Amino acid sequence: MTLAAKYCHRFSIVLCSLTLFFTLCGLFIVPLGPHYLTNLLVFSSVVGVINYFVGNKTLVGVSARNLYWCVIIYIIAIGISRLVHDDESWLIRNLLYILAFFLLMPREPVLVNAFKLGSLVGGIAIGLLAMWQYHNGMLRVEGFTNAILFAQGALILAILNSFFAQESSTVLTRYSYIVSAMFAISAIYLSQSRGVWLALIVVVTFVLIAKAIKEPIKYLSWFLILSCVLAITFYESDILRTRIHESISEVNMMESNDYTSSWGLRLMAWKSAWTGFIDHPLLGVGLDGVKPMRQQQLLDGIVNDFYVSYEMYHAHNQFMQNMVIRGILGLIAALAILVYPMRFFWRQSKLVSVGFIITLGTFVCALTDVPIEHQNTLYIYLMSLFFICFKNEGRFNDKVAS
Hints:
mainly alpha, single chain
C-alpha cells in the first residue's frame, strides 16, 4: 500500500468513526444536529470515494444488500412522486448520503468501538439534557427538536445500550451501558410523548415474553417486577398520571364527537389520509395536493373545520402519510423500511436481536407519528440498522493500514 493510500485509509477511518459517534452523541444533543451530521456524511463519503480508488477496494463497504434495497425502494417511491407531483427532495438526498456512507465505510473494528462509545455517552447526554430542560421549567423536554422526535431518538439509544450491556465482557462496562440506558429512558419519560411511552412498553413486553419461552420463571418474575414499578410510578408520578388522565379525557371527547384534542386531531388526520388514499390509490395526492384535498373533504363533511384550520403538517402515521402522499408505492416503501427489517434481522440472527427491536420500536412510533419524514429520526434509525449489519457481519480488516 502506497503512502497516499495508507493515510487516506486512516483519514477515512477517523471521519467515519467521528460520524458514527456523532450520530448517537450529537444528533439530538446539539442545535442543528442533523445539519452537522449531513456534512459529516458527505465529507466522509467524498474521502471514502478517494480511499476506494487509491486503496484496496476490498477493505470497504457493508454487505447488507437487503437493507440497501429497502432504502432504494423508498428513494424510487419518492422519486416517482416528485415526477408526478410535489414531494420531499431532501429525503432522497439524505437517503443517498446514508447509502454512500455505508458503501464506502472502511471495515475496521475501531468503528464498532466508536459507535458503542457514542451510544454510551449519547444515552447519558440525552438524559442529562432532558433533566436540565425540565429543571429549567420546560414541561415537555424536547432537546433541540420537538418532544416526540427527541423521545424517539432516546428510545433507540435505550435499546442500543441495553443490548450492548448484555454482550459486555466486564462488569464496569455492563453497568455503564445500563446507566446510559436508564438516562435515555428518563428522557423518554420527561418528554411526555405517549406514543413513545407505548413503544417502550411494547418493546419491553415483547422481549420479556420472547425470553420467557426459554426461561419462564426468570422473565415472568421480571415482568411482575416491572409491572409493580409501573404501578408505583403511576401513583407517585404526576406526569404519568396526568398524561393517562388526559388520554382518557380525549377518548371521552371523541365519543362525544369532539375532535379538538390531540388524539382527536390524529383520528381526523387518519380519516382524511385514508379517504385521500382511497380517492387516489395509485400515486397519491402529493404534498401540493394535501391542502386542496382537505378543503374538499371539509365540503363533503368528512373532516371538520377545526382540523382543516389547524393545518396539521402530516398525518401522524407514517403509513397513512405515505399512502396519501405517494399512493400504493408509498405504502410499499413504508413496509420496506419499517416492516421488512424485522424479518431481515429475525432471519439473520434471532427474534430478540437489537436490529429487530429497534425496528419494532420505530414501527410502533410510526403508528402515531412520521419518524421517516424527519432528518434526525431518519438518520439515527437507518444508520443504527446499517451499523448493526456491519457489526453482525464481523468481516473486519486484520489491522489498520500501517
